[in-house]
Amino acid sequence: MPDLHLPDTPKIPLARYLKQAKDDTKAQASVVAPDSVKVSTDSTMAMTEASSLDTWLQTAPQSQTEITIPENYNDSTPIKIVGPKTTGGNVLIHVGANAHVALQERWASSGDMLGVSVELDADEGAQIDWLSYDAFDADMVILQRYARLGKDVHLNWTVAGFSHNSGASLLTTDLNGSGAEATVNVGVLASAKQHIGYVTGITNYGEKTVGHINQRGVLVDKAHLAFNGVGHIVQGARGSDSQQENRVLMLSEAARGDANPILLIDENDVTAGHAASVSRVDAVQMYYLMSRGVPEAIAKRLVIRGFLEVGLSEIADSELRDELFKTIDETLVNADA
Amino acid sequence: MTTLKITDLHVKVKEEPEHPEILKGVNLTVSTGEIHALMGPNGNGKSTLAETIMGNPKYLVTQGDITIDGESIKDLGVDERARAGLFLGMQYPAEIAGVTNAEFIRAAINARRPEDDQISIMKFLKELDAAMDFLKMPEDMADRYLNQGFSGGEKKRNEILQMMMIKPKFGLLDEIDSGLDIDALRIVANGVNKMRSPEFGTLMITHYQRLLDYIVPDFVHVMKDGEIIETGGAELAKELEKTGYEHLKAGDANA
To answer: How many domains does chain A have?
Structure first.
């Protein structure tokens, strides 16, 4: 076994988290998909093992689910993946060339210490809408999602982080093929004593690749959220673009937010940019809304919804949107009390 | 008829209590059915007056009162004042991403209605379409985020749109004409004139006679150094256009 390093996770004590033992229950994720999609469980699937984190995530007992979407698949009805109720798991998704697919993952697992690993690889020309809805009810979750995109693959990915756990979420995208494009939108609502960190990274390997990161987090109570955005353009990825925006809104005195944009640029012929902010509700916006007669509580809700909307705007599923907004409203009401 | 009455109003900036007062005893009565214009040199308290009436938390009333039909609104929050019938068309409207114009206006209308009698979406959209049409606003402005990326002129038009939809008793309009081209000015003025009725009163802050050619005021007031130093009819504005404010001194005769 080679000496494996941990990924770099500023402000997130990953090594300390990984010292804890994972829950030892085992259960399968469930998948709803048309017949043309191949689903196998506990196959000896080959997942990446490049870091100690990968090793930790893959160590048994861990359920394995492998989903293969054939070439030229074309169906806008989302393939639904629901995580096991009381444990984490590993999911491997292959998307064939020129497939047009929508994926909807939903995790509401409970437990003490869960490991979740989802890997997606996409072949040339695939177009993917990917929604990851995290509503974990566990104490601690270490989660890694890893996307590798071939030539001209377009990925439109939204991660809704509405969980109650502490821990870390690593969202990594490699733009391997030329012309690959990824937009990763992350909307997070954190409350109570949650202590959670996101490392959302996109690496441009191929020429003329485009990676955009948009992270929005709202904090209430004593929650602590760290957003790390990592845009990396490697040498040779000419004509590539890396943009990111990380914004945290704190609604209580005791909440703490970090937004760390990191740009690593090893090529000259590229465009890149970043923006970051950690702020409280804007008094000028509140005054404007309230000057039209909207009561404070509703005005606050509008500002917060609006703030998160930028991270969640790509969610087309109206039922899910309603559910998310309901969760936002409930969390705010409880936080005010 | 409803009456907005400002009596001996003294105001400071809350965070600068050691600084002198901005308003030093303003007296003004605006009744529904009347159009008042408030003019005067820059930096003499006109916007402060409008913002204080609306309840901007930035300002502190140190003396005097603001009443609607005899009831003091001085201790009401800004949203309560709005529901009591006040509307402030702001000089610099805030931009709010993620909240659409239509969604916001509907929330503002519903805030005035009981929980079990909220405006129906059909009725709302019909009224909104008509008002936007009147103000020659492109349809997509209903679905755009509130003031986000709006041009200066679009923002002003959007303030008038909100006023037309909310139908307040009093419209306080702070330089609603600044930054508008002639066509836009005419459209915005049409909007205000359309609201003119025995149930609606206006206090318009402006620097230019031009606006008053389109919205003819019943009263013109001149504010200087935190006080209203002169009051007259529409002809006063025309006179000031020729003479300027220089010759008027604070504390002088009050017509």
So the answer is: 1
A292 interfacial to chain B (CB closer than 8 Å):
yes
CB distance A288–B93 less than 8 Å?
Answer: yes
Give the pLDDT score at B253: 45
Nearest to A93 by CA among A154, A146, A157, A169: A146
A39 is a domain residue: yes
Percent of chain A with pLDDT over 90: 77
**Parent domain of A226:** 14-280
Q: Give, rounded to a whole angstrom, the gap between the first and last alpha carbons of chain B.
A: 24
Across the interface, do A294 and B111 touch by the CB < 8 Å criterion? yes
Whether A97 maps to a domain, the answer reads yes
pLDDT, tens digit, 9 for 90 and up, residues B12-44: 999 999 999 999 999 999 999 999 999 999 999
Q: In what order do the strands lie in the sheet containing A210-219?
A: A30-32, A74-82, A100-107, A127-134, A154-161, A181-190, A210-219, A241-250, A271-280
Cα–Cα separations (whole angstroms), residue B29 to A241, B48, B236:
60, 17, 18
Measure B84 CA to nearest chain A CA, in Å.
Answer: 9
In this complex, the residue of A283, A292, A308 whose CB is nearest that of residue B82 is A292
pLDDT at A336: 57
Backbone dihedral angles phi then psi of residue A284, each to the nearest 5 degrees: -70, -40
Is residue A119 within 8 A of residue A93, CB to CB? The reply is yes
Bridge partners, A249 (sequence order): A218, A279
Choose the closest CB to A296 out of B79, B88, B93.
Answer: B79
What is the residue extent of each domain of chain B? 3-92+169-243
Half-sphere exposure at residue A253, Cβ-oriented, CA atoms within 13 angstroms: 0
How many residue pairs bridge chain A and chain B with CB atoms within 8 Å of each other?
80
Q: Give the pLDDT score at A293.
A: 97
Topology of the domain comprising B3-92+169-243: Rossmann fold (3.40.50)
Using the beta-carbon criterion (under 8 Å), do A288 and B57 form an inter-chain contact?
A: no
pLDDT in tens, A206-238: 999 999 999 999 999 999 999 999 999 999 999
pTM of the predicted structure, to 2 decimals: 0.82
Whether A275 contacts chain B with CB within 8 A: no
Question: A308 to chain B: nearest residue by CA?
Answer: B98
What pLDDT, on a 0 to 100 scale, did the predictor assign at position A337? 45
